[in-house]
């Protein structure tokens, strides 16, 4: 007897339709209210009028995609709870963003984060960094759209074509009409659906197995409760050091210098932006705790009959939808509410990407190109029309890339790794500019490109070992199955036979990229300055971290004092007036 998977009924589809319809209504509301999205400042920055709560939730959900909800729960089911430690690195990184990176971007007041690089280094650095970011975020948005569609098709019967087109069109529609205001307000609604989905999983499992304490007991006996890995070995997938240091690098790359998050912070003043970021951390940590615990909850239900081993699912990312359909398919509308939460996780990430991609493309490429070709600037009306067209075009592009993803095999894991690989070099070039006064464009671009190439090599070089999984059982299965293992597992080599760099955990990629960019950028900047005899101009203090800016201002003040003293000595005192200082002094 084979175990069949239930599918959604009309009540579930109605719940999904209502949830998606609310996002559309929010977009329409902001299109026809307030300033009606007629200026660039309102469309991309909400005229700095947003409240703290929507910004805090928006900062939290921007990169919490369906892949995150499905993946972190599967992570805890498969590898244990060690990953939760990464939330401590987010706490460490929050003040660094608030009092380090954030003041610099507020000083220049730019819509595009990459405008900073042009002010600090030059036009070429802005173009290079912008292109890397543009390709990466567009590809990631397409993957975020494809991943839940594939999973839900396999477990709920929803055709992935309808999922991809439906989510893509809805997202492009409300982003195009409502601008950043619609994106942030829908983030609040979609964030609520994400929490609801996780509560559904946890309370259902607790009811099935006999309570929350029973979930923890079963997980503990199955060796899923793990917080004791403190090794310094970078080849171990998750350790305290890797999650704290590597997690900090990832957090700073996402919240310190990423266009998506900076654009959200710029929708208010710096004081409110700091408060919003501080508030977003406990919300993110709570969501992370729920997601991790949901993995344990599902383990407590499947620990006697693992669905991956019995071939009920093709990958562990399908575990959460399978659990919902196995346990709640007899409750009309509830599976639909869960699916709406998964869709919402995708919507929040894609909408953030579309809006920021449009902002970067307009500010970094179209406006400069138009000014160069025509000799004058884009008008406000032309800019807003162009922005809406860009959002729509990028939305359609995401749909196309989502369909293309199914033709590229390992694109899901590859794209998630790229997200970390790109973040380190980009964090490095921004930090180099804000921290090192002697850094120049030659060093910044060279360091970034070499770092990016190196990270791509170690991230995608083959062959590479599979991470060890915790044991699973099938002794409690009540249906027939043919157990199988993957090709990679069947031909897995001994760990010592792999090239060392290919064994390094993905959690370190952002830190490696950051350090290489900083080191090469500093060395090449100073060597090129000497070799090319580039003069060292006095830098603009606003382009540096506050403590560096303070040092520059003090040095500049001391220089002015010395110059005034020399002027006084050489001119006023040339007559050897009694009040003048002694020449020997």
Please supply descriptive tags for the structure shown above.
single chain, 585 residues, mainly alpha, Sodium/glucose cotransporter, 2 domains, 70% helix
List how many beta strands DSSP finds.
Answer: 0
Distance between the termini: 102 Å
Could you tell me the strand content as a percent range? under 5%
How would you sum up the global shape?
Answer: globular
Q: Report mean pLDDT, rounded to a whole number.
A: 83
Query: Which class of the largest domain in CATH terms?
Result: Mainly Alpha
What helical percentage do the residues reach? over 70%
C-alpha-based Rg, rounded: 27 Å
- CATH homologous superfamily grouping of the largest domain: Sodium/glucose cotransporter
Secondary structure blueprint with pairings:
Elements: H1 10-31, H2 40-45, H3 52-61, H4 66-79, H5 86-108, H6 115-120, H7 123-156, H8 160-209, H9 212-221, H10 240-256, H11 259-265, H12 270-302, H13 319-328, H14 334-374, H15 380-405, H16 411-435, H17 441-460, H18 487-490, H19 500-503, H20 509-531, H21 546-570
Helix pairs in contact: 1-8, 1-14, 3-8, 3-12, 4-12, 4-14, 5-10, 5-12, 7-8, 7-14, 7-15, 7-16, 7-17, 8-9, 8-12, 8-13, 8-14, 8-15, 9-12, 10-16, 10-20, 13-14, 14-15, 16-17, 16-20, 17-20
